[in-house]
Inverse folding.
């Protein structure tokens, strides 16, 4: 085999193997490749309510606290603090958004979310429009137990405190009783098992 | 040329030292040990397993190669590389799946069966292409 043939064979090998690996795994994030997703660790639509789970309620240690009938969501602004039971949230003006959970692990699945606009809750607590906010989960441990959300996300009309996904009450593994879902944020920052929302200095 | 080489070497050494400082200052001793084991294992596995095996396969492939069309070698090499790259991705998945996960939505496929299927498809493509290439070369002998 000549050097030229060897070089071409090598380049062809790199191209074919890279294409094959991408084609057989990228279906966990791209619909068009989902039918040939043979090897990705995630599968689109696999999981409760057709949505994969990154961290289950059991892994997060919230199986008891998230089911507590006394759960309330505390929203603390500089001026006042409001608390909502799940029924009170459900009775507020509903909002819907189709948004993906886009995980930093490489999978992505869109879902239809329904709940309350985060901006409505912030306005009710008198949170200033330029403030960053802090979201806390019921989780006791873990690096994403609490996250900070900049104001451009917090007041985006698509950002919800979600109570339902794909037409059903949120599964425990998807963040029951309530979770955050915002456009353009990585999955780990879409806080599940929401406990409190707090205004930070702007 | 000489200055370019010196500059490149200096940049390389500088980056290496920076990386080493970062590793020592940000990683805990057990993590450093794990990193060292991983780096050493890569060399051992490559030089001790991958290189001898591919050399042996190559030697065997060329032993009775008279008259074998070049395209057959190319197709076999591309097929092997593709299968190997996919296997490097999938074998750790099979291992992780075997260990089990607390999350039922991860590693849900029958990866071992699918990997076998991919290897079977690669083998079929190589054999069919090879047969066609051999037939053609017999019809039109090379000069």
């Amino acid at each position: 085999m000549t050097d030229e043939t060897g070089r071409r064979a090598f380049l062809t090998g790199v191209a074919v193997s890279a294409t094959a690996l991408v084609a057989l795994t990228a279906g966990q994030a791209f619909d068009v490749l989902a039918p040939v997703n043979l090897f990705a660790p995630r599968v689109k639509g696999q999981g409760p309510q057709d949505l994969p789970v990154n961290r289950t309620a059991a892994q997060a240690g919230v199986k008891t606290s998230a089911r507590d009938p006394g759960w309330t969501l505390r929203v603390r602004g500089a001026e006042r603090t409001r608390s909502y039971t799940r029924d009170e949230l459900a009775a507020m003006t509903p909002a819907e958004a189709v948004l993906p959970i886009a995980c930093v692990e490489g999978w992505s699945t869109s879902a239809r979310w329904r709940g309350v606009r985060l901006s409505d809750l912030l306005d009710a607590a008198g949170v200033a429009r330029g403030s960053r906010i802090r979201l806390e989960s019921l989780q006791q441990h873990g690096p994403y137990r609490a996250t900070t959300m900049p104001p451009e996300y917090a007041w985006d009309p698509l950002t919800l405190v979600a109570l339902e996904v794909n037409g059903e009450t949120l599964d425990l593994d998807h963040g029951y009783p309530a979770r955050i879902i915002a456009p353009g944020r990585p999955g780990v920052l879409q806080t599940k098992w929401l406990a409190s929302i707090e205004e930070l200095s702007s | 040329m000489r200055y370019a080489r010196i500059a490149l070497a200096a940049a390389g050494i500088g980056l290496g030292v920076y990386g080493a400082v970062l590793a020592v200052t940000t990683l805990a001793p057990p993590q450093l040990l794990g990193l060292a084991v991983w780096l050493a294992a890569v060399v051992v596995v490559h030089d001790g397993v991958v290189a001898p095996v591919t050399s042996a396969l190559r030697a065997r492939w060329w032993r009775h190669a008279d008259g074998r069309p070049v395209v057959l070698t190319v197709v076999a090499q591309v097929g092997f590389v593709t299968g190997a790259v996919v296997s490097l991705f999938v074998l750790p998945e099979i291992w992780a799946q075997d260990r089990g996960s607390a999350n039922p939505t991860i590693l849900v496929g029958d990866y071992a069966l699918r990997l076998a299927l991919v290897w079977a498809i690669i083998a079929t493509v190589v054999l069919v292409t090879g047969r066609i290439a051999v037939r053609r070369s017999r019809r039109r002998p090379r000069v």
User: Anything to note?
Assistant: The first strand of chain A starts at residue 73 and ends at 76. The radius of gyration of chain A is 21 Å.
